[in-house]
Structure formats: structure tokens, C-alpha cells
Design brief:
single chain, 431 residues, two-stranded antiparallel ribbon
Length: 431
């Protein structure tokens, strides 16, 4: 303390030209402040109330802190009107969005986007093998549907299933580990891209259109049990001409099953445009005697409000309803499809620039002061780290051992022997 007094005293002597003698630190600082006030030139009025922070070193990331009170907590947005079939009233034309909801939808869609881009990278590195159908571009469908139903409702989809696997509660780590065939995957590394499951989520199905009658069966179970639950049954435009889908429509209408049949129309079934594959591309009318709505599938709020409307329809005992979500996939049909032999790069870029679901939500929130650019950047950085950590796990976790190959053939049965590739090779199945 004495050294500090001496240093300050000597400095003040040199500055003021007078001997200050032995004083306390407080007294010295008061003397110094008075000298500065007397000798400093008059400053602009703004400078007396605001101190400019020092410039950060090059490469430093600056985070601007704002209070939650600075943001708009809730806003109402106009959304696109749905086309309707056999309905007098449809979903609303306005949607309310709270700040918390908006950030959650953004986080969900951005996570799915980053996860799929990482899967693309791992596939090109030949770490992921076999079939792999990516969901980037269609994130508003999964996020909007999940926002409109309850965790106890049921959902079944086709092989483009990674997004729904995540929204149904499976972690990024378990999804990527399943893609790489590791023991820590959601299906123990034995399902791969098309066969992931969770409570109230039935996959991930590899046979085109085969999940639709299964979804009708799940809805039948909901009706039979009287639990007020519904089943969301998804299929693509490429599967929309399957005969089994129309058989399912017929039974669902006869029995008034609480089933939302959703056609995710991403414009191309494998490498064929919908116009070349279907005599009628009004997929929401395909149920004929079943009501239908056509929805902007690139807007998470449109999807949410339409799904709420459809869920209320089913829960009220009116039977099934069909939804057509008009969406777009950025990647090819699967990783073996470059995706540009039947459409142009300019077409893909135009959709990205004008209709991207993540950019649309982000712009809405920024325009209405519901979040800041810095906040979105922080979320993006956090998601990138989560995906990188998950990818590290998915590439380092061990593959399942051979002795576990035949486990879980049955859900609940005593151990049984399973023949291997030849009669004297015996494996065991444990439930």
C-alpha cells in the first residue's frame, strides 16, 4: 500500500508541479481528478454520458448484450392461405409467434440442417455407407408438425427420416452414430439411415409407401383405445401413386380413423418431376371423399397452423384428413443422386435465396425485433459445436460386436438360436 502511495504521489508531483506530501490513496485520487477536471478541454455533451469502449484486438468476437426487455415478446404474422378440398373453413390466415417459440423453431431447423450437412460430409468421406436420404430444405415440415402435436401422438414416415427422428426426441449423437453403424446409435448401429425409432415414432421405412397402411393401423389403435391420440402418416410425392395408399385412405374413411395423411411434395420423386409422374399433382385432393388442404411447406408457421387444424379435425371424430406440404429438397434424392441432372443449379439456388425456411423465420424475427443478429450467431455456434461433438462420437464409438447381431429379433421372448450363413454357424438372439 505504501509503495502505491509513493508511486501515485510522485506521479501527481510531476503532473501538477507541487509537493502533495503524505496522503491516503483516496485523497491522492481526488487531487488527481480535480486536476484533470480543471486542465482538460471541454468535451462534447455526449462524451460525458457515454464512454466509447476500446477497440478489440483483431480476430476478437464481440457479443452485444441486450436485455430480454428490449425484444418484442410476441408478434402476429400473415401466412399464406391454404388450398382446400371438401372443407368450408380452413386454417387461419394469421399466426401468433412468441419469442421463445421462434428461437426454438430456429434452433430445431438449424440443428437438422447442420446435422444433414455433416452426414453429407461423412458420406463423402466413406464413413457413412449404403442408403442415405438427406432432409435439408424441408426442415419447416418437421419443426412445424412437431410444434402442433403432442409427444404422446404418433408419427411414421418414409426413408427421409433424420429430421423427424430428431424432432421426436433422439439426440444428434445417436442419429449420427446410427448412420455410421456404431453401437451408440439409436438402433444399436443395426438400422442405418432408414430405420431409426423412438417412443411414438415408428421410423424410417425403406419400402416406398409401405408406412402408410402401418400409419392407418396405428390410428386404428388410437381409436380402439379411445386415448384421443392421432397418427401423423407421412409419404412423398413419389409414393403418392401407390395402390396401398388408396386402400389405406378407404379404410381410414370408412372407420373414421384419427389419421393425418401428409404428402411431402418436394417436386421430384427420385429423378422425376411430379408433372412427369402424376396425371394430377393436386395431391391434397387425392383422397376424393377425404378432406384435404395444400400448405406452404417452406413456412414453419403455415405448417404449424395447418397441422393444428388437421389434428383438431381428427380428434373431433371427423375421421382422416390429407395435407400436402409443398416443399423442396436441396440435395438429390439420395447420396447417389447428384440432384442436378433433372433440375438446374439455378433452380436450387433460387429456392434457397427466396424460400429457405430458416432464413424466412430468422428474417421475420429480426424485422419485428424479436431477436438480435448476435443471438442467432450464438445459437449457430452452439449448434455447430454440438454437431461436431456428435460426429466425433459417431466416428470413434465401436461397432456392435458379432454376438449382438441377432439380438432383439423379438421384443420379449426367451433366448433362441439363429442359424448363421451356414448350418454349423449358430448365433443367439436375446430380447
Amino acid at each position: 500500500m505504501q509503495n502505491m502511495l509513493t508511486i501515485i504521489s510522485n506521479a501527481l508531483c510531476r503532473i501538477t508541479g507541487r509537493n502533495v506530501g503524505a496522503q491516503t490513496v483516496s485523497e491522492l485520487l481526488i487531487d488527481l481528478s480535480e486536476y484533470v477536471n480543471l486542465t482538460s478541454p471541454a468535451a462534447p455533451a455526449l462524451a460525458t454520458t457515454q464512454r466509447q469502449p476500446p477497440k478489440p484486438p483483431p480476430g476478437t468476437r464481440v457479443v452485444v448484450s441486450r436485455s430480454f426487455a428490449d425484444f418484442t415478446p410476441q408478434a402476429t404474422f400473415d401466412i399464406k392461405k391454404c388450398d382446400m378440398h371438401r372443407l368450408e373453413d380452413g386454417p387461419p390466415l394469421k399466426a401468433e409467434l412468441t419469442r421463445d417459440q421462434g428461437l426454438q423453431y430456429y434452433r430445431t431447423m438449424q440443428t437438422v440442417r447442420r446435422m444433414e450437412l455433416k452426414a453429407d460430409q461423412l458420406y463423402k468421406q466413406k464413413i457413412i455407407r449404403g442408403f442415405c436420404h438427406l432432409y435439408d430444405g424441408q426442415e419447416a415440415c418437421a419443426a412445424g408438425i412437431e410444434a402442433a402435436i403432442t409427444p404422446s401422438d404418433h408419427l411414421i414416415t418414409a426413408y427421409r427420416a433424420h429430421g423427424y427422428t430428431f424432432t421426436r426426441g433422439v439426440s444428434i449423437k445417436e442419429i449420427l452414430a446410427e448412420l455410421t453403424g456404431r453401437k451408440g446409435g439409436v438402433a444399436k448401429g443395426k438400422g442405418g439411415s432408414m430405420h431409426m425409432y423412438a417412443p411414438h415414432f415408428y421410423g424410417g421405412n425403406g419400402i416406398v409407401g409401405a408406412q402408410v397402411p402401418l400409419g392407418a393401423g396405428i390410428a386404428l389403435a388410437c381409436l380402439y383405445q379411445g386415448n384421443n391420440q392421432i397418427c401423423v402418416t407421412l409419404y412423398g410425392d413419389g409414393a403418392a401413386n401407390q395402390g396401398q395408399i388408396f386402400e389405406s385412405f378407404n379404410m381410414a374413411a370408412l372407420w373414421k380413423l384419427p389419421c393425418i395423411f401428409i404428402c411431402e411434395n418436394n417436386k421430384y420423386g427420385m429423378g422425376t418431376s411430379v408433372e412427369r409422374a402424376s396425371a394430377s399433382t393436386d395431391y391434397y385432393k387425392r383422397g376424393d371423399y377425404i378432406p384435404g388442404i395444400r400448405v406452404d411447406g417452406m413456412d414453419v408457421l403455415c405448417v404449424r397452423e395447418a397441422t393444428k387444424f388437421a389434428a383438431d379435425h381428427c380428434r373431433s371424430g371427423k375421421g382422416p384428413i390429407i395435407m400436402e406440404l409443398q416443399t423442396y429438397r436441396y440435395h438429390g434424392h439420395s447420396m447417389s443422386d447428384p440432384g442436378v441432372s433433372y433440375r438446374t443449379r439455378e433452380e436450387i439456388q433460387e429456392v434457397r435465396s427466396k424460400s429457405d425456411p430458416i432464413s424466412l423465420l430468422k428474417e421475420r424475427m429480426l424485422t419485428n425485433n424479436m431477436a438480435s443478429v448476435e443471438e442467432f450467431k450464438e445459437i449457430d455456434i452452439e449448434i455447430r459445436k454440438q454437431v461436431e461433438d456428435a460426429a466425433q462420437f459417431a466416428t470413434s464409438d465401436p461397432e456392435p460386436p458379432l454376438e449382438e447381431l441377432c439380438n432383439h429379433i423379438f421384443s420379449n421372448s426367451p433366448p433362441l438360436e439363429v442359424r448363421g450363413t451356414h448350418p454349423w454357424a449358430k448365433l443367439k438372439s436375446i430380447s
